[in-house]
């Protein structure tokens, strides 16, 4: 404002000069530049953004988790956002209460961000669409319906779970047990639904589901119960860390993998290919997913008239050494 006053021009004209707009008259440009030097003014991000009428900031709402999926998505999303020359305003939620999530969204809207990335796989929440209006929102964990301009980019987790289960059934296993993720996580529910769908389509029995907490420790504890049951010949695990725990439990119980029990994980963490028995798993390219989603969000910011869109990014079954034909007679 001081520069504009000293040069006798509008703030918008100052911003045009700062941003190198060629359509500013030379005499006006000279006055503005002289005022900048005289006042010792250093152009800042806010002044540059006046021309665009945007903050060039994207808000990010993310569950405060070190689990592989959410943390990998956050790293990739940050890279994509900064590569697009946007700043970030991040709020981590460490509780899955709807009031906490809703309050965080209110905070981001109040900061005047151009769009919001929601990486919140835990729980559910409700928010009046009028609060956000047509502010573009990217969800990396399924639709929330919190904006009239919502973009959803998600790995096709249901299809991945179905493919994993069908792979095991195709090897001759009569049924497939499931170590699921925590109750309340969207990814847990989608993978559970895919597993159930595959069993139902094959007319196979549906064993009781056991829920872990994504850690290898929980996979080990629950795996000890499965390892003690000789009828268990195939297990689909909702993530690779729990699958690693299960493999340890099976080894300690003297159950050979894949001779006695076949195991499939989900995620394809970097360690999966380097276990003593390389883990068969479902690969989801989280880096690609985040970059693809952020690209859709920036497009929605630039083209606000577009309406809700949903894109499912395909996943891939990676067959390695932990799956084989069912034991004879079982």
From TrEMBL:
A family per Pfam: Peripla_BP_3
PROSITE patterns: HTH_LACI_2
Keyword field: DNA-binding, Transcription, Transcription regulation
Annotated ranges, domain HTH lacI-type: 1-52
CDD domains: HTH_LacI, PBP1_LacI
GO MF term (any one): DNA-binding transcription factor activity
InterPro entries tied to this protein: HTH_LacI, LacI/GalR-like_sensor, Lambda_DNA-bd_dom_sf, Peripla_BP_I
Protein name as catalogued: LacI family DNA-binding transcriptional regulator
Organism lineage string: Bacteria, Bacillati, Actinomycetota, Actinomycetes, Micrococcales
